[in-house]
Each structure stands twice: as C-alpha cells, then as structure tokens.
Amino acid sequence: MTVEVIDVPEAKRYEARVDGESKVAGVAEYIRTTELVAFVHTEVEAEYEGAGVGSALARTALDEARAANLRVLATCPFFAGWISRHPEYQDLLYQSRSKVSD
After folding, report:
1. Alpha-carbon span 87 to 83, nearest angstrom
2. Transmembrane region positions (predicted)?
3. How does pLDDT run across 61-101, given as a tens digit for each residue?
4. What is the pTM of this model?
5. Structural domains of the chain sorted by starting position, each given as residue range(s) with its CATH number in brackets
C-alpha cells in the first residue's frame, strides 16, 4: 500500500490518499503563521486505521515544517504522541520564550 500526502493550504490541512485513490484516507488540520505551525486535529478513516496513514501525515507535515524552518505546536493528541515516540522530530517543538516571574 502506498500513501501519498499533500498539503492543501486553502483547506489548511494535509490530505492522505492510498494507492492513487481519489478518496481522502486521512487529514491533518493545521494553523500556520510565519514562524509556527500548530497541528490541531488529525483524523484517519476507519478502514485505513493501523495502515500507516497517520504516520505518513505526521512525517510529511513535520518534514515540510522543518524545511520551512517552522516551529511546531502539537495541540493534536495524535501529533503530540507521534512526536514523543519519534525523538528525531522533538527539536521542532515550539518552546515559549516568555518567563514567568514569581
């Protein structure tokens, strides 16, 4: 099975399709600024769960964030969990620069 992932900026999401089908197998929705991309929701159709669609979405989206020199805010539980299991992507995580004073 081949998973193709493309960015659809007008929809503010990445879309995954399997084996050249026109049906969308999964999506990763985001909010992007000039410095940051926040992944807010990921959904994979039931028939594609466990087939690597979510991982393909995460890997492609994070690789593109790295290439664009963007920090990542993983508010989506799937992205947060995926990044925690893939330490090679943890350097992309957004770190707040503000300091809390006592």
Report:
1. 7
2. none
3. 999 999 999 999 999 999 999 999 999 999 999 987 666 65
4. 0.91
5. 1-90 (3.40.630.30)
